[in-house]
Amino acid sequence: GVVKIFPGSPLAQKAMGAEVSVLTALGDDPSLPVPRFVGIGEYAHENGDLWHLLVMTRIEGSDWLSADPAKPEKRALAGALGEVLKRVHAITPEGPLADWPVDHWAVDRGAAMSSVPGRLAAQAADFVAEIATLPPDPVFVHGDLMALHVFVDGDTLTGIIDWGDALVADRPYELAKLHLDLFEADKALLRRFLGAYGWPKDAAFAQRCLAQAFLRQAHCVAQHGRCDVFHKLPGLVAMDDLPDLNALADRLFRV
């Protein structure tokens, strides 16, 4: 098995509560490739705080980053992720989940700390507010599908770990880390994922995705002080020629 240690801070306890809630709910479907909840424990840390332990089963394979799948394997894995996440998004866990309310200032601060060019980042808060007027599509999401949290063995998806950031959010929130980190903005992988999922898209799909990526950035900064959901983009996508965030949304997410 695996033991995950949570310090005594309120933030860490909140994350552990969310992860226990999620793993308990996901455990109702034994075919889902996720760790199985075993139990929790606690111990007195030397600093005087009460720290907690989360015990779960081990996931086979290697994380995506270490495995570095070949292109054909990535396409198969993108499809498998689409099929799995469609099922995950239909689940409603009971108990606490992550909750990171943000306001205009938080979005603005988060965008300013990202790798998005400053003149575009300055538009983020107004852009997010405008997209927020569209009808929402709330689902339960993992929220942090980066390369270290997806485990594979060749072209087989073996597991998705680290559910402490899971929350109910607008569906495209899931694509922030999935596309901008795991897929490295590869639209061919995004198309494969969306097709396998049967993702519901409207005319504002690309704009919804970028707005949710800025919200994920704001949440991440609130959690960790510093964060950059967009950190891979300068080496992958040209951004300096873009006039506004609508154009950036199209460049990143229009499929």
Number of helices in the DSSP assignment: 10
**Termini separation:** 40 Å
How much of the sequence is in beta strands? 15-25%
Radius of gyration: 18 Å
Major beta-sheet overview: 3 strands, antiparallel
Please tell me what the overall shape is.
globular
Spans where pLDDT lies below 50 across 5 or more residues: none
Order of helices and strands: EHEEEHHHHHEEEEHHHH
Structural class computed from helices and strand pairing: alpha+beta
Oligomer: single chain
Strand line-up across the major sheet: 1-3-2
- In total, the number of strands is 8
Descriptive overview:
With 255 residues, the chain is an alpha+beta fold. It is built from 10 helices and 8 strands. It has helices at 10-26, 64-67, 71-89, 104-112, 118-121, 124-131, 175-182, 187-197, 205-224, 245-253, and strands at 2-6, 37-44, 50-56, 62-63, 138-141, 150-153, 156-160, 167-170. Strands 1-3-2 form a 3-stranded antiparallel beta sheet, covered by helices on one side. β2 (37-44) and β3 (50-56) form a beta hairpin. α9 packs across α10. It is globular and about 55 Å long. The relative contact order is 0.16. The model has no long low-confidence stretch (mean pLDDT 94).
List keywords for this structure.
255 residues; alpha+beta; 3-stranded antiparallel beta sheet; 8 strands
